[in-house]
Sequence to fold (244 residues):
Amino acid sequence: MTEAATSPEYRLLTEFRRLFEGKIYRHRDSSQGDFVAMHLYEDLIAIKRSPKLIAAVIDRKDRVLNVQNKRHGVAARRGDGTFGEIIPGEPPLIDPGYLVARGPIATVEIGIEVKILAKAMIKQIDRVINDLRNQVVEFRRGGGSPISVAVVGINHAGSTVGYEGDRPFPTTGRQGFPHPFQEAPEAERRLRASAAPEFDEFLILRFKAANTPPFSFEWVDYPETRLDYSASLSRISARYQQRF
Fold:
């Protein structure tokens, strides 16, 4: 089965692919994770598995995507795609093409952290694990029982190029400069062992992106990726129905 054989593609998977396809992927742009994360909420509404979520987002519009990624009155660092109850009296912001409105939130009901490991994975794996674990603590800092979700992309390309400004840094496969496919299995093993247990949902997106012209992108196994994501959406919906 090919990607084209399954339609339509989920919005989160589409936007994740667009980070790499046809352009240079720059790993230091933190806004990329935020943008990918917000589409999970669109997918949650599209599958219509939680009547409570549909009522809160579509009917009452009192649950929104955090417009500033910052809870009012709660000291917490920026998270990728926090969602919760809008501050009373604040108007929700509705953007064309989106069902989930935006606005300042007082509580976190769902929190998403997005990480992408494109190259030099083992060098940064401890930091990534700590960032993920710490983000769950931040989601919970305001109280309540938020649903915590991690989306982690892991590159499996035969080689790739990283960029610092306009300067390219290609992998060589030699010591200190491993290719993504050489590191990906160990990176995933460590993430599942040390970070995944902290989250309600922990989704691994396996992909191949060399980050060189023509800047192509390929899923390692698209049907499996889509199935895993579909299952996560169903479980998140069920948890929302139970908790809120």
Observations:
- The chain has a mean pLDDT of 90.
- The chain has one domain: 3-46+107-243.
- Residues 129 and 194 are 7 Å apart (CA to CA).
